[in-house]
Design brief:
Elements: H1 2-29, E1 49-58, H2 61-94, H3 100-113, E2 119-127, E3 134-143, H4 144-158, H5 164-183
Antiparallel strand pairs: 1-3, 2-3
Helix pairs in contact: 2-3, 2-5, 3-4, 4-5
């Protein structure tokens, strides 16, 4: 009889523990989908524009904005440098090798300077209900043609052999590849 009582108590304890763990699993397995601002195709780099979407969070709105802008400039700078470097490598293989190093240096310099042409395409500000912090979201963009034009102007100024048409053709192809990558 004593063994039966112990067995019943053990089954009750196991049942209670089992029920509690199921409740916890239910609580922790519930999740909420969060929709990010500027997540659509129109906010990604395409064949005509380099774009970057970034955010910054701070208890001060101006600081949140500055963080977002620094992050966005950094991201778009990386994209411009990467594409420009790829185009530069392809282009210099097609022209006289004597200008290859000059042209590579030129394209790096222009990549830095072109960032002054960045435009804020859109922005949103959110304030957290719990802690009052601001989150600033920003979309920045720069025209592909601005990059090519600046490279052309610098090449003329530096007297570097440069065929804008040929360079533009390669650049367009790289931008189309970037757009395909962003579509996935």
């Amino acid at each position: 009889m004593k063994t039966i009582r112990i067995l019943i108590i053990m089954l009750l304890v196991i049942n209670i523990i089992g029920c509690n763990s199921k409740k916890e699993i239910t609580k922790t397995s519930k999740s909420t989908e969060i929709e990010l601002p500027f997540d659509g195709k129109e906010y990604k780099s395409d064949k005509d524009y380099f774009r970057a979407v970034q955010s910054g969070t701070s208890s001060d709105l101006n600081t949140a904005k500055e963080i977002a802008m620094v992050n966005a400039r950094s991201e778009i700078s990386y994209s411009v440098k990467t594409v420009t470097k790829n185009v530069s490598q392809i282009y210099t293989k097609e022209i006289d090798g004597d200008y290859g190093e000059d042209f590579d240096r030129l394209s790096r310099q222009v990549s830095k300077e072109i960032l002054t042409n960045i435009v804020v395409a859109n922005h949103k500000v959110f304030q957290n209900d719990k802690d009052g912090k601001f989150t600033y979201w920003v979309v920045v963009e720069i025209k592909k043609d601005d990059v090519v034009t600046n490279i052309n102007n610098e090449a003329i100024k530096e007297k570097i052999k440069f065929d804008k048409y040929q360079f533009q053709k390669i650049f367009d192809k790289e931008m189309e590849e970037l757009e395909k990558t962003n579509a996935n």
